[in-house]
Design brief:
The structure holds two protein chains of two kinds. Chain A has 14 helices and seven strands. By secondary structure, chain A is α+β, with helices and mostly antiparallel strands. Chain A has a four-stranded antiparallel β-sheet. Chain A has a two-stranded antiparallel ribbon with strand order 4-5. In chain A, helix 2 packs antiparallel against helix 12. By secondary structure, chain B is an alpha/beta fold. Chain B contains twelve helices and eight strands. In chain B, strands 5-4-6-3-7-8 form a six-stranded parallel β-sheet, sandwiched between helices. In chain B, strand 7, helix 11 and strand 8 form a beta-alpha-beta unit. Chain B starts with a helix and ends with a helix. Classes of the chains: A alpha+beta, B alpha/beta. Chains A and B meet through helix 13 and strand 7 of A and helix 2, helix 3, strand 7, helix 11 and strand 8 of B. Strand 7 of chain A pairs parallel with strand 8 of chain B.
Chain lengths: 502, 258
């Protein structure tokens, strides 16, 4: 507030002090007189203890026994709930002129009563583990009854709440248990199927697969080398075979020749069937020689005959060639088998990380479900214990330590507070009246008003001159003001005394 | 500073005591029918009050005299926005203050024909003639004038209350009268007391016929809007300034020093 503003307000007060004094006096008188008319009020208090039981409720493990501000706030909200207050009103028959009347109260009336009770209730801590319910009202018996009813209802409902809480938790855990059992079974089954399906591909089989793959690859190399060697040998034999003739010309006696042919036939028969061409050819030659031998009687003079015989070298080479062919075929078959086996094992080895990850996931799921299932089982056992305990003995965390009593005398108002409120109120009224008057009828206070607002010079400032009569009037007014001051003091003192005597 | 008028007043009081007449004194009357009484208590108190109030009127007088010397202005109108703001008191005090000068004389004309108060303030009893009578040609000017018990001061009272004061003030004769009284004596200053300007048109008419206008406002009573309206009505006149009356403030210690 600037100096000029302060000066302006002081001038405003000086010129309109009559308005201020009038409003101040009337307001002070009315407010103090009004304070005398305030109804008597009674207060009743009930102390509730937060009790610690010998057997701790497992469901309430985290609850503290001290009454911290948050807990008091929670209790206050519980006590002051609309539902509870409605039942208090109903139980005590508040708002009914005839308490035996069964006619339900009007909705608006109930709301009004709830609001009234809520305004007059104070819930506060009264030490460690204690809190108080204080109700203030105009009728002593109602004050006591409302306080006690609220306290009793709170304790009863707390007890019901504890029981219902245990049952609710039991039901919830049962439901959870069933669900987790299904989950556990599913995860176990999935893990089992995975292991069965990937028995050779599990993370533990990785070394075996790698070793076996290496072994197969080595064998394949060896087979390829051997096959190559045999193919070279086959080529050599083929060339040798091409150089040799299958049969040669020889001069032998018929008898010897027949014997040779028989030996040769027996050899061929040991290896081939009768349909083999060489066998058929040899048989035909043998038959021919035998017929020629029958025609020739003189055995001693049997001349040497020119005959065609099988080339033994040729036969030997051919046999070797056949053997090599067979071996080559066998090696090729083995090579194919090895290639397939290597592909299979290489696929297994490459899929091991993915299989490991899947196995870990399935194992983890199973473990989590197992743990949750076990936890729920333990919790269920605890809740069963609580339920059994509640069946055997009712327990509440709260106990009424000191019930509300009938208040015999009304509570005293704070006299200083009321008086100060009256004075401040009246002062405010006076100031408000001045400001309002000035706002509606702004008057000129001094030369600055004229010069600054109207831009007209002030040529003379004539102070107020009082005549004798006016001086007498002024003296009378001052006496009146003094009288008013005395009246104020008397009013204030009487207000204080009245409250002190109460 | 004890002025001649104060001594005259003291003498008058002594005479009243001698004659044992409490309120009425007999002096050499200008006309036999006029009775002189005590000055208005406010005027008396102001004159007794050797404080700031009387000095402020002297400041005002100085301004008037300077205007007379510099511009030849000797005809001044005193008005206010509304009634009860002290214009008559100011007119009388200003006229007395001018009359106390060594060379100057003052003529106080009461143009408030609706509620004439000047003659009562100066202790003049019932008047039978005045400005209204003169303007209606009922009396000569010299017979309408009154010499109140203040040296160098003449008073032209309003006279009997007329039915048409605005018309009388707006008349040519009124203009001629003002010119005449101004021109007759070069050391005479004419102070005209008029009705409130926001309520009657008389002051507006007169403001155009005078050399200067003094607008009286009462501190704590005159509303800003009323003063603004009054100033607006004096737009064409020579508004010399505002006389702020009834200021409620502690008396200057400077004055008491002397």
């Amino acid at each position: 507030m600037g100096k000029e503003t302060l000066k302006y307000y002081l001038q405003m007060f000086r010129y309109h002090r009559g308005i201020f004094l009038l409003c101040f006096s009337v307001s002070l008188f009315l407010s103090i007189a009004g304070s005398f008319l305030l109804p008597k009020r009674y207060r009743s208090q009930c102390t509730i203890m937060l009790e610690v039981k010998g057997i701790e409720n497992p469901l309430a493990q985290r609850r503290e026994t001290s009454t911290d501000p948050d807990q008091v706030k929670t209790i206050r909200n519980l006590i002051l709930s609309n539902n509870r207050l409605s039942r208090v009103i109903e139980r005590l028959g508040l708002g009914r002129s005839d308490q035996s009347s069964l006619k339900p109260l009007d909705h608006l009336e109930v709301e009004r009563l709830i609001s009234q009770i809520r305004e007059n209730i104070v819930i506060d801590t009264a030490g460690t583990g204690l809190f108080t319910i204080t109700y203030t009202g105009e009728e002593p018996s109602k004050v006591r009854d409302i306080t006690n009813t609220l306290a009793n209802m709170f304790i009863e409902e707390n007890l019901e709440l504890t029981g219902s809480q245990a049952q609710a938790e039991y039901d919830f855990i049962q439901k959870q248990l069933k669900e987790y059992k299904q989950r556990l079974e599913y995860s176990e089954k999935a893990l089992k199927e995975f292991k069965e399906k990937n028995i050779c591909q599990l993370p533990g089989e990785a070394n075996f697969n790698l070793t076996h793959l290496q072994k197969l690859q080595d064998e394949l190399v060896e087979v390829r080398l051997k096959s190559k060697e045999l193919e070279q040998k086959r080529g050599i034999l083929k060339r040798q075979l091409a150089e040799e003739k299958p049969s040669i010309v020889a001069f032998v006696q018929r008898e010897n020749r027949i014997k040779q042919m028989q030996v040769q036939l027996s050899q061929l028969m040991s290896r081939y069937t009768e349909n083999y061409p060489d066998v058929i050819k040899l048989k035909a030659e043998l038959e021919k020689e035998k017929s020629l031998s029958v025609q020739t009687t003189d055995k001693e003079n049997d001349p040497y005959t020119e005959t065609s015989v099988i080339n033994p070298i040729y036969q030997k080479i051919k046999e070797s060639l056949n053997t090599i062919e067979i071996e080559i075929n066998l090696l090729q078959t083995r090579q194919q088998e090895l290639t397939k086996a290597i592909e299979v094992y290489a696929g297994r080895v490459s899929s091991i990380p993915a299989q490991e990850e899947e196995l870990a996931r399935l194992t983890r799921d199973k473990k989590v479900n197992e743990e949750a299932y076990e936890t729920l089982l333990k919790r269920l056992a605890q809740i069963n214990m609580v339920r059994e305990m509640e069946k055997t003995a009712h327990q509440s965390r709260f106990k009424i330590l000191d019930p509300a009593r009938l208040p015999l005398s009304p509570i005293a108002y704070n006299p200083w507070q009321i008086t100060l409120i009256c004075i401040f109120l009246s002062f405010g009224m006076g100031v408000g009246a001045i400001v309002g008057f000035e706002y509606l009828c702004r008057t000129i206070k001094d030369e600055s008003d004229v010069q600054e607002n109207l831009h007209i010079p002030v040529v003379a400032y004539i102070p107020r001159v009082l005549t004798l009569d006016e001086q007498k009037q002024q003296n009378r007014r001052r006496m009146m003001e003094g009288l008013v001051l005395i009246i104020w003091l008397v009013l204030i003192l009487s207000s204080l005394m009245r409250n002190v005597f109460h | 500073m004890m002025s001649f008028i104060e001594r005259a007043l003291e003498r008058a009081a002594q005479e009243r005591k001698k004659n044992k007449s409490s309120m009425t004194i007999s002096r050499k009357p200008s006309r036999p029918s006029i009775e002189f009484q005590e000055l208005d208590p406010r005027i008396h108190a102001m004159m007794q009050d050797r404080t700031n109030a009387f000095e402020q009127y002297k400041v005002l007088r100085t301004m008037i005299l300077n205007a007379g010397q510099q511009n030849g202005h000797r005809l001044f109108l005193v008005t206010s926005a509304n009634a009860g703001e002290g214009k008559t008191t100011t007119s009388v005090n200003l006229a007395i203050s001018i009359a106390q000068g060594l060379q100057e004389t003052a003529l106080l004309i009461d143009c408030d024909m609706r509620n004439p108060q000047v003659h009562r303030m100066l202790g003049v009893g019932k008047t039978f003639a005045g400005l209204a009578s003169f303007l209606r040609d009922e009396v000569e000017f010299s017979k309408a004038l009154i010499k109140p018990p203040v040296p160098n001061l003449s008073l032209l009272p309003a006279g009997p209350i007329p039915l048409n004061p605005s018309e009388l003030i707006n008349s040519r004769k009124m203009s001629l009268l003002l010119q005449e009284v101004k021109d007759r004596y070069p050391n005479r200053f004419i102070i005209i007391d008029s009705p409130p300007i926001n309520q009657f048109t008389d002051a507006s008419i007169l403001s155009l016929k005078v050399d200067g206008v003094l607008l009286v406002a009462r501190a704590g009573k005159t509303r800003m809007v009323a003063l603004e309206a009054a100033i607006a009505k004096l737009k064409k006149a020579n508004l010399m300034g505002v006389v702020l009356n009834s200021i409620d403030r502690p008396t200057s210690s400077y004055y008491y020093y002397y």
